[in-house]
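#lab-general

N.A. 3:47 PM
ok so I finally got the sequence cleaned up, no stray characters, all 252 residues accounted for. can someone with queue access submit it? mine expired

B.Y. 3:52 PM
send it over

N.A. 3:53 PM
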Amino acid sequence: MKIAIIEDEELAAEALAAIIRRLRPEAEIIQTLPSVEEAICWLTLHASPDVIFCDIHLSDGISFEIFRQVSVKCPVIFTTAYNQYAIEAFQVNSIDYLLKPLKPTDVAKALKKYEDMQQQFIVQQLNGLQQLVHQPARHATRARFLVKIGQSIKAIPVEEAAYFMAEEGVVFLVTFGGKRHIINYTLDQLEEQLDLSDFFRANRHLIVHINAVQEVKPYFKGRLALELHPALEGDQTVSSSRAADFKQWLDL
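B.Y. 4:20 PM
back already:
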């Protein structure tokens, strides 16, 4: 595990490094960066580490500026004495938010979270390879759905679908104009027919179009709360197991 530390206080950086070495002796701390400017320069010129521990208040500014200027793909664990930046941290590749003074137990939990995510990613890759080998080719993505309106049949282009929702055993196509139409497909069947760069299976009852997602907020137990357009009654959430994939899909 290769780790970079972004921290402007030398003693704090050394203390964090000591905690990491004690918890993960095999880990390699490849760089300690004391400022926004130096972090931008180093991350631009070097391969990304496996994980970054990053303070928020640095000597020359707020560390979020680093991630606005450099595309950082690895997970980030934020460390700070302030708790008002949790939402903004969530918009970066944040997997944890630790308040100073840092406790070894908190650092251990953050490292374990990172390792669990990596293990889950490996399992997903293996499952994906197995599916490619054993499953038949996917159907072409659907361009429209036929729905019944009174005595007529109407074609609804797929780009007009804001989301598909299952309610008491019935699946509805809901348009961006707020109209609901019953369709004769399950959500599992729809996943096989939709362009998954545009649609995401948020939970057992909901598939959403990327343009229908207006706001995303942290929710209980690692889940994400969604605000959709058109609005949908009740709490609409993404499960904790799918939260990382959802953030990647939204390019957060």
